[in-house]
Amino acid sequence: MRNSKAYWICQLSGWGLYGLFSLIISGIFQGASALNLKLLQFNALFAGLMVLFTHLLRLHLKRRQWLSLPLSGLLLRLLPALLLLAIVSQLVMWLAMVYVVHLYTMEQTSFAAYWGYVFYCYIILLLWASLYVSVSLFRQRQQQAIDRWKLEASLKETELQALRTQINPHFMFNSLNNIRSLVCEDPEKARQMITNLSELLRYGLQYTQQERVPLARELEVVESYLLLESVQLEERLVYTFEVDEEVLQVEVPPMSVQLLVENAIKHGISRLPQGGTIYIKAHVQEGQLQIEVVNTGQLAAEPKPDTGIGLNNASERLRLLFGRSTLQLLNKTPDTVSASFAVPLALQV
Questions:
Q1: How far apart are CA 132 and CA 126, in angstroms?
Q2: Which tens digits make up the pLDDT trace of 304-347?
Q3: Half-sphere exposure of residue 43, counting CA atoms within 13 Å on the CB side?
Q4: 345: which residues sit within 8 A by CB, 6+ positions away?
């Protein structure tokens, strides 16, 4: 709203001052007698047309997203568009001068003069476009820098959150205690659990500093986490991966799927005496990678204040990375909860 208000203030005041300046220049070169009503109407009409045509150009720039193009692509489109605007606007002015303002007659006009005005108008429009594009690109760079700072802050927060989760005393105690009990009973499984635990901790230290990781890498860590939890929950935890092979190299924010699985166990499976099932799904739909974690349980009517902190951070990271947040948490059926988000494939590098 603030940007729109500033734009209209600059647009109206700028072209208004230009019309006034043109009127004064006409008076200087043509004499004070030239400052008559018709000349005033002519300059007011020209300024009004410039307000209209430059605003239409701005709408076209935004709708076609020309400002996101490389400079060569922008110029290739903008320069012909300015020439077309100059031709059309001066045609309207020419007709207005003859049939509306009656400043000239058809006999007093010529095509040479018309093309001279077209060239003059083209230069004026080029100056306007240069100013508008420069300001827009500057503001765009500023917003990108702000989003980058927010993303870096979110990454740091996610890293700390991951470390707090992974080195949580209860989680560490349960994992180590379970591994200890396996040392004598099943040494091979105990070694595997130690490998899973170290893998989980290393991932939290290394990969949360990155913006994106391949989905295959994220799912490896999710499986390590589930194997560790399976030792504690035993037959109360059943999990299934339903992942299309074609999406394994699609990049996602690190710890994003892990967070959903962790929430499913912490707030769902672990609270049910009989346990439940977790489904980790990933497939392509409508040009997006759809990731969904479904678990047995139901959302609490009044969740605890700290329940949504991690999900809120994940949602903000999705917004900063992909331009919008698609993280959803809802009761899918009377017996299951669904947590999901989407990654636009078009934004993959």
A1: 10
A2: 555 555 566 667 667 666 666 577 888 999 899 999 988 888 65
A3: 19
A4: 250, 284, 287, 288, 289
Class of domain 167-347 as given by CATH = alpha beta
* Distance, C-alpha 84 to centroid of its chain: 33
Length reported for the chain: 349
User: Using CB atoms within 10 A of its CB, is residue 78 exposed (0-12), middle (13-18) or buried (19+)?
Assistant: buried
Is pTM, for the whole model, over 0.85?
no
Residue with token string 């999900």 = 311
Angle between helices 37-64 and 71-99 (to 10 degrees): 150
Cβ 283 vs Cβ 292: under 8 Å = no
Torsion of CA 269, 272, 275, 280, to 10 degrees: -20
Smallest CA-to-CA distance from 82 within 121, 27, 140 is with 121
All CATH 3.30.565.10 domain ranges in the chain, comma separated? 167-347
